[in-house]
Amino acid sequence: MSRPSPPDRSSTRRSPAARPTDDELLDAARAVFAERGYAQATMGLIADRADSTKPTLYAHFGDKAALFRATVSREVAAVRDWVFKEYETANARPLEERVRLSVMAMFGYAGAHPESFRLLFDSAVDEMSNERRALADSIAALVLGRIREHLTSHGRPVGPSADLLAAMMVGLVGRAAMHVSHSPGLDPLAAGELATGFVMAALRGLDPALLDHVDRPQPAGQCAT
Questions:
Q1: Which of 7, 107, 169, 194 has the fewest C-beta atoms lying within 10 Å of its C-beta?
Q2: 126: alpha, beta or left, given left = phi > 0 and alpha = psi -120 to 50?
Q3: 72-88 core/surface letters (b: 16 or more CB in 10 A; e: else)
Q4: Within a 13 Å sphere around the CA of 108, how many CA atoms are in the beta-carbon half?
Q5: Using one digit for the tens of pLDDT, what is the confidence trace for 193-217?
Q6: What CATH number is associated with residue 193?
Q7: What distance in Å separates the CA atoms of residue 131 and residue 161, rounded to the nearest whole number?
Q8: What does pTM read for this prediction?
Q9: Residues with Cβ < 8 Å from 125, sequence gap 6 or more?
Q10: Cα distance from N-terminal residue to C-terminal residue, the chain
Q11: pLDDT: is 208 or 225 the higher one?
Q12: Residue 178 lies in a domain
């Protein structure tokens, strides 16, 4: 005997008291977008995750693009509250401690809110919104500030190598924190301490000759050798 088909929940009506809140719908959207990326996420999957219906999603947020924007906006605000407060707290501390707190803020958020972190920073979530770009750029600018402070404190002029070093640090910390967000058994604080040690060792071991080679202006049309 054939099994009955599951009921179509996309238009099932719920009592007002049982309907999910906007935050619950956004939680479900965050989970599905983080798992599947924008292209593979569907309103049906998100409705199922929220134990809700597609008509409810459309009524609250409009289409999938509008729901994605609303989800990203909420998560960007959450990251700013978490990460940027840590940066501000660190401003009065010695440089090495500022670097540590900055790195740990990213790992702490990735460990506490892995779906949010993946949604905002994982390249597999294939819809790169302006807000995600702006968030990544603002974090990179803060890291660049730390690099400039380090170079200046060691009597180094600040040239193009500072931007390159900042890109390296953001890439390393970002990818390592992403690894933590995908690894539930990994202690994010221990991973953050390891990353901090790695970054500080790299900064202390910078070769001035290599920095000079990057910072030295090259004649037009001539490649560095």
A1: 7
A2: alpha
A3: bebbbeebeebbeebbe
A4: 16
A5: 999 999 889 888 889 899 899 988 7
A6: 1.10.357.10
A7: 27
A8: 0.76
A9: 33, 34, 37, 38, 118, 119
A10: 76
A11: 208
A12: yes
